[in-house]
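pinned: reference chain
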Amino acid sequence: MKFIYRTLFLTIGLISSTACSDFLDQDSPSEMSDKVVFDNEYYTQLALNKVYGGLTQDKTYSQFMPIVAGLNTDCELIDGLGSNATNSGHQRGCMNYNAAPGWGDLATIWDAMYGVIEDANLVVAGIDNSSLLAEGNEYRENMLRYKAEAKTLRAMLYLDLIRLFGDVPFKVETSQSDLSNAYLEKTDRDEIMDNLINDLEESIPNLPWAGSEQTTEHITRGYAHALLANIALTRAGWFIRETAKEGYKTAEENSDDNYPTQRCDEETRVKMYELAEKHLSTIINSNKHALTATPAEYWLAMNIGELQTNTPENLFEIPMGINKSGELGYTVGFRVSGPTPDYGKKGNSTGTLKLTAPFFYSFDPQDTRRDLTCANTQLQTKNGYAEELLGNKPFEIYCGKWDYRKMAGNATWLAAVLAGDEKAKICSGINVVKMRYPQVLLMYAEVVSDLHTQNSYGTDLSGKACTISAYDALLQVHQRAFTNQAQAKQQLDQLIADKGFFEAIVQENAWELAGEGVRKFELIRWNLLSKKIDEFKKEYLTKVGTAAEGGWPEKVYFNYKKNSTKQYKEIDMTSITWDRTLSKDEQKAYEGNKDAFGKVNTTQTETNLKSISSGLNTPVCNRYLLPIASTTISTSNGKLHNSYGYSN
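pinned: its structure tokens
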């Protein structure tokens, strides 16, 4: 059989997987037999590179998974509210939980994800049958590593498919030419995750730690440990189910009568938490990964494409290529509205993912992550070349983690955007991070505080497998964001005292990871998605129009930087009066002002707010999953169907 793409019922036609990172050579030896390919180490690497290349498609990890799939939450929203939020044939409606099986992107996403899985299956099977795998062969160690990389990538893909669709077909062998294994029914997601955990446990010993010889653009041992822990926690968490499972616990809140939200029995839950603790502890104890000194330093490196090789914060980042793939910074990020002298004739989009005013105000003003994450300004030439405040748009704050102003430090990217015309969309090439060290620490804090003896803060004093406590892990993440470490500790201690240790983890998850496609799936496994969305809406209604009673100001004032090195007028972010209402005399000290989040706007309160996540509990409670596309079902030979109240 030729080494070609084998067609599944779920992969109609050929899936393109063009290489985007310079080192990802994917020229496929497509006219060679499997035997020839996998009896040659170089060709085996090319086959593996094709798996990595498949991750750079728009409907896998270049655009959909990192930007769209994680919407909506309590702090992250899809762009376009009001009537757009109910448009079941567009991502704006679908990510407000109003999806329909006829949405065209569904089949494309399904096909693309399963296409990459098929390529991973080819690599695993080819290596298993390779003569190079024989004991004593000089290439055996490398071949085992390639196989482990392919199995880890496959596990990552299946976890994301489960998060999107729930129970899905599970296939870890290559497709047969007679289609005898092409048409598959759904497999229970718990069974899938149990298999993925076994695959990862087998693969981990064959993977190297991240460093100069194996950068984080390849699968590393640290990522495999973290992915296994993440799968274990997902396995232990809450899911909406097609039917109730015997012996499982049904949620007392936020559960549908016909499609219950359940989690596994307590014995299995504890087992999964212990498994997660083991693997997270291994990462921490290894000292192979660490937090970057400050959030600002981390995000600067990401924006300019600088790989960390010495104790990197990232555990795995999918390699993209400038002007080839990667929409971070273009479809999400700080807004450059139209042509500018500094950034070319087009500007960027950044419209798909937005943040909310209640999330912005949840930060301590001294938390440096606030203004890194929440971009309340945009750059444009409309009224002179200047930075301007967005104004009273409480559900339309840009996510500033990706920022043209930082990206300009990458000379290759800057040359590309300056050379482009007003129609040119320049892909950023910014890598998509699948796991970074703060998430490891937050997961660790969660499992250790759940499993072990607690002190008055609800934190671990006697962790069995690691040298740090749950509290210390949480404190590391929180303190890094502050210049004043004592103040940071005091604030965290007060948060724990007020709301409890677990709620502090939930909040820190938002502050640290918002906009990165993580929070939605954590809220789901905690069964907090609906509750947190309700809380954010209530917070907005409480704070708007109540400036006199301590609510948000109706207008904010600001100054421009006096010694800016930029070509444009740059707002002094430290001057903005976010937290107070000014007297007339005080207002005279400021150059500019703008209506702010505290001013009542009936379109926001009566239309937009109500449209946010409007389909999450209608007609089925807690229906966060997407339907399977009608076209996928129609070509499944009767094997697939929709549940959760979706039609076929």
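why pinned: The chain is about 40% helix and 5% strand. The first helix runs from residue 34 to 38.
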